[in-house]
Specification:
There is one protein chain. This protein has helices spanning 53-61, 68-78, 85-92, 119-135, 188-201, 243-246, 256-259, 264-272, 277-296, 351-360, 365-394, 399-411, and strands at residues 3-9, 12-19, 25-29, 50-51, 100-103, 116-117, 155-159, 165-166, 176-180, 209-214, 217-223, 227-229, 235-237, 240-242, 308-312, 315-318, 335-340, 343-345. The protein is of the alpha+beta class and 413 residues long. The chain has 3 domains: 3-103, no CATH class; 116-223, Phosphorylase Kinase, domain 1, CATH 3.30.200; 240-411, Phosphatidylinositol 3-kinase Catalytic Subunit, Chain A, Domain 5 (Orthogonal Bundle), CATH 1.10.1070. A hairpin with a 2-residue loop joins strand 15 and strand 16. Helix 2 (68-78) packs across helix 3, helix 10 packs across helix 11 (365-394) and helix 11 runs antiparallel to helix 12.
């Protein structure tokens, strides 16, 4: 007999994940789930089709940490199989990115009751998260049964109106994602916040972020864009998926540069399949603006998992940008995560190379030229303004903001 996980989308039963004894995983929609409702993924249009492992597995993998040590930690905590997303989501699938919930017939590991956290509590949990991602250690201070994708240690909590933090549980879903700064990436919180703010100053739609500190632990905090309040004031999930999930590509293949993962060509074909033609053009245009920014700002980590789509019934939009981070201060090879007209080195990518990618996205060349010109002309001022805002927010000099601005200026000469 197959094992099953029930799938809910915004609290509505929509499908089931099935796994055979041999490990074959499939996803199928419930018979009553209508075609005008929100799909689980663009890779799985609504219909009475059993989606095979080559589609189902990459989607499920994309809901879990992209870090072997973190997966091992989850597996050890629950006695699960770290190589099997079905096994892991049975325990941590009650809250994931987007609006999905995964539950089994018998909930082996119910969420613990939500509780308020002190600054010291949060610092302790963050240190445990760092250990989980670095060596697979199982944290003991608290149990939060949810899953966050990505390679970097992070924690999801709920911020209350009075400024207090609490653990998410059940309907008390998380509102923010908190990332501690790794020792090997000093001041990454400032760099990422400055990059995000600079993108915002240039008119890009980005997630709301801030820098903070719990005890001695520096953190970068993002407000979850996949959460919204109803007119009645109730917090609810917003469905989303990253581009790897939409293309049925596993997280291990997220970089085109290193792994042969998705590039602009594959992404363009995905966008052309969006139901409404007006949304095809809008999503492609917003993606192109982000692509140009990532090249100009020397963001080496702009792979396909760092772009996402918001799905709402048949409507598709590009999610607010996240994980934008210029890497000019860290001595990394200055290469794009995606090929730009067969080039990766930022120093070799030209105006015409970006126009080539705009054409692949079916965008008007004159419009694309204006985007490239405006981005390049205003980039350094945007980073300068972002640095000024950070200093005003924190009442601190933050020499990192000037160091980033100067290094970025040098890299573009």
């Amino acid at each position: 007999m197959n094992a099953e996980l029930n799938i809910k989308l915004n609290g509505i039963s929509c499908g089931v994940v099935s796994q055979t004894r041999s490990g074959n995983i499939t996803i199928q929609y419930d018979p009553g789930y209508q075609e005008d409702q929100t799909p689980i993924s663009l890779s799985m249009p609504i219909g009475q089709i059993e989606y095979p492992k080559k589609v189902a597995l990459p989607f499920l993998q994309g809901l879990l940490p992209d870090n072997e040590n973190a997966l091992r930690s989850i597996a050890k905590r629950y006695g699960a199989n770290q190589r099997n997303p079905f096994s892991l989501l049975k325990h941590v699938g009650q809250e994931v990115a987007g609006a999905l919930e995964f539950t089994s017939g018998t909930v082996e590991q119910p969420m613990e009751s939500t509780r308020l956290l002190s600054e010291s509590d949060i610092e302790t949990i963050l240190k445990e998260k760092i250990n989980e991602y670095e060596d697979g250690t199982v944290g003991t201070s608290t149990k939060i049964n949810l899953s966050l994708a990505g390679a970097q240690a992070k924690l999801a909590l709920r911020l209350n109106t009075d400024g207090s933090w609490q653990t998410p549980s059940g309907e008390d879903i998380s509102t923010h994602i908190i990332k501690p700064v790794p020792d090997r990436w000093q001041n990454l919180d400032i760099v990422e916040h400055q990059t995000m703010l600079a993108a915002s100053y240039l008119g890009l739609n980005v997630a709301q972020t801030q820098i903070s500190q719990f005890g001695a632990t520096q953190v970068f905090i993002s407000k979850r864009y996949d959460r919204k309040k109803t007119p009645e004031g109730v917090l609810e999930r917003v469905h989303q998926e990253d581009l790897c999930q939409a293309l049925s590509v596993p997280p291990s293949k997220k970089y085109q540069r290193d792994d042969g993962g998705p590039g602009v060509g594959e992404i363009s074909r995905l966008f052309q399949g969006i139901y409404r033609s007006t949304e095809q053009k809008k999503v492609a245009a917003e993606f192109f603006r982000a692509l140009v920014f990532n090249v100009a700002a020397r963001c080496t980590d702009a792979h396909a998992k760092n772009y996402s789509l918001i799905l709402d019934q048949r409507s598709v939009s590009l999610a607010p940008l996240y994980d934008l981070s210029s890497t000019v201060l860290y001595g990394l090879p200055q290469k794009s995560a995606m090929s730009i007209n067969s080039k990766y080195k930022f120093s070799e990518i030209t105006f015409s190379d970006l126009i080539f990618e705009a054409k692949r996205l079916k965008l008007d060349s004159d419009w694309a030229e204006s985007v490239i010109k405006e981005t390049n002309e205003n980039l350094l001022q945007a980073f300068s303004d972002a640095g000024n805002q950070i200093r005003a927010e924190s009442d601190s000099a933050h020499p990192t903001t000037n160091a980033l601005l100067n290094a970025l200026s040098d890299s573009r000469r």
